[in-house]
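Hello again,

I reread your note about wanting to compare the complex against the isolated chains. To keep things tidy I'm splitting this into two emails, and this first one only covers the full assembly. Below are the input lines as submitted, including protein chains and any nucleic acid or small-molecule components. They are followed by the predicted structure of everything together. The single-chain runs will come separately.
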Amino acid sequence: MRVDEIDQHIIAELELDSRRSFAAIGQRVGLSAPAVKRRVDALRESGAIKRFTAEIDRSVRGWNIEAFVELHCDGGLSPSMMRTMAAGIAEVTDAYTVTGEADGIFLIRARNTAHLEEVMVRIREWKGVNHTRSSVILSHL
Amino acid sequence: MRVDEIDQHIIAELELDSRRSFAAIGQRVGLSAPAVKRRVDALRESGAIKRFTAEIDRSVRGWNIEAFVELHCDGGLSPSMMRTMAAGIAEVTDAYTVTGEADGIFLIRARNTAHLEEVMVRIREWKGVNHTRSSVILSHL
DNA sequence: GTTGAAAAAGTCCACCC
DNA sequence: GGGTGGACTTTTTCAAC
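Full-complex prediction:
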């Protein structure tokens, strides 16, 4: 799908406040409310806008420990297997394949250190995972 | 602020779809629309809900290259200095202080490899940054 | 793209448990 | 803290242009 400059502008507005009305967005981007709605519908349909969501303060969640975990694999772990692995571990918030020393990076969210440790054990149990390298997040800057 | 189970439930609904109506949320959590609104207002006021936003597909953005950059520092780089540094580099999407081998991790978004390289140079120029270790993201799983 | 009108939702009361 | 009902405003939605 092609996304023109007005679409980009609409997307930027929705990122700032996804509950803003179509009329208010239209006023900023120079369109009528129905025109904005049609574009937003098309952007959702095409997948450009994945979903409308809320940004929640981390302290609200019970799971307060986060860590980056690098996966170093012995050649046999494909991206699709890593996807399966990430999907099978609920504590994995984000999963990436990367270049460099590591093969993949998981972002883990756990309730406490014991929970994190338990998750680490589950990760290391996977065939193909040679070793891991973790960085527990101390603060978000 | 205290956040009870119903608040958690409301937050979960808003994360799934921040444009859902208060009445629809109320139906799911067992409250009336005005009651939901009151709670949402309080959650926003207290900062538990930071903002309503949209999740945008990465391919839509012009800046398509992302990388994790570990910062290894020679002891003299405090978190507050790292915050200053992150704020001064527009390409830094997220910044964390962490435990482990690295002192900090930046998530960088750049237009292309040349742009990423240029950002890396700027990071390494900072006093106190001993060396960096990068992982370019190949895919989001 | 627009306008205009109907339908739906949001907002804000007072009043109740 | 919660609900209801009503009045009013705004937003959404759709047909027609």
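For quick reference: Residues 71 and 132 of chain A are 5 Å apart (CA to CA).

B.
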